[in-house]
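Comment thread on ticket #2218

A.B. wrote:
> Attaching the input chain for the structure job we discussed in standup.
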Amino acid sequence: MGRTALDLSPVVTGMAATGAWGVLGGTFDPIHYAHLAIAERCREDLGLAGILFMPSGVPPHKGDQQVTPALQRAEMVELAIAGNPRFSISRVEIDRPGVSYTVETLQSLIGERADLVFILSVEALLGLPTWREPNRILELCRLAVVPRWGFTRPDPAWLAERFPGLVDRIAFLDGPDLGNSASDIRLRAGAGHSIRYLVPDAVADYIERHHLYRGETH
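C.D. wrote:
> Ran it. Output below, let me know if you need it in another format.
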């Protein structure tokens, strides 16, 4: 399939946005080049005004997994996106106490950004029915779904059953199909191996200076 365009009507509200903004949420532990490539591809393919990177505060799906403090993850995001004026960061989740739920975050962003496109991987889409109020998420924004190695696009029947009447708010992009994994990067950094060319140099330097992921085993 080729590029998929979303019919997004520009609206001017709040922070003077003049078109739809993409929202790329995640733990970003650490942010890496695949995140940046996904954001740029979605921005270009969908004609978005910009991409809002949204580090999670307390991720509800991480369970007992150790997560780097939110402020450090946000600092790494800021370093990674510093050279792109179309990229911005939202601290709405890390500034809000308690567990971060996407539906609540999107609701709070509606007043700040004109029109939102939530970017997620096929893997995340398959797990979306387990999120809090998944249908409400689709009512608040459109979804742009990017490939993920090891996961196939769900068939239309699966989508129709789980998101009745909302399937037209989901668009699938044909790339980028990148396999970089934050967990693999943490393991490499923890073992003292180079992570150059996996993350921006400024992020690699930050990880080294702050001794992040030392002893990481999973």
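A.B. wrote:
> Thanks. Noting for the ticket: Residues 13 and 44 are 22 Å apart (CA to CA).
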